[in-house]
Design goal:
Elements: H1 2-34, H2 56-66, E1 70-74, H3 80-91, H4 93-98, E2 103-107, E3 125-129, H5 155-172
Parallel strand pairs: 1-2
Antiparallel strand pairs: 1-3
């Protein structure tokens, strides 16, 4: 009889500790809502409400399977040009709306795929890849020495290039 009492006390302890852990969990999530929200990691500030892929491989896979074009933004957190472009990109309502039709990836490091640096590893640069997984060398910015570079003042060109990427899709596939 002694042993059975021991077991039930032990069970009670387990139940109590689980309940405490649950409450602790609840408290933490409440704190998170009162603190200012940190930017979503994958968006890195390029559009927090958009769905961003985590890796280049995942982005290619999703593009191929969803038949949506892929837009890749190479940037660096401490690059003033990247920061400036990010700001206008994130605040551009039409771009943010249109971006929903793309598989999206922003990278702060280079991939091993040389196709993503057709004319060098500068930032910021934006490349479009179609669902056949071809880098669209025909969708470029306005600089002949850095074909995929965009300045904040080129934001409307970037917008029309996004439209172009979606149009190509309809005509070619």
């Amino acid at each position: 009889a002694m042993e059975r009492g021991y077991v039930s006390v032990l069970l009670l302890l387990i139940v109590i500790s689980c309940a405490l852990a649950k409450d602790a969990g609840k408290k933490d999530s409440k704190d998170a809502t009162t603190k200012p929200k940190l930017p979503q990691t994958l968006s890195r500030g390029w559009g927090d409400q958009l769905i961003w892929t985590q890796t280049y491989e995942e982005a290619l896979f999703r593009s191929k399977h969803s038949q949506k074009p892929l837009m890749i933004i190479h940037h660096l957190e401490d690059c003033p040009h990247s920061q400036a472009l990010k700001k206008v990109f994130a605040e551009h309502k039409d771009i943010q709306k249109l971006a929903e039709k793309f598989i999206l990836l922003n990278l702060v490091y280079e991939t091993t795929d040389k196709n993503l640096a057709p004319d060098g590893q500068y930032v910021p640069r934006v490349l479009f890849i179609d669902p056949s997984l071809t880098v669209r060398a025909d969708i470029t910015g306005r600089y002949s020495n850095r074909l995929y570079a965009y300045e904040p003042s080129d934001i409307s060109l970037l917008y029309s290039n996004m439209q172009k990427a979606l149009k190509l899709l309809k005509t070619e596939l």
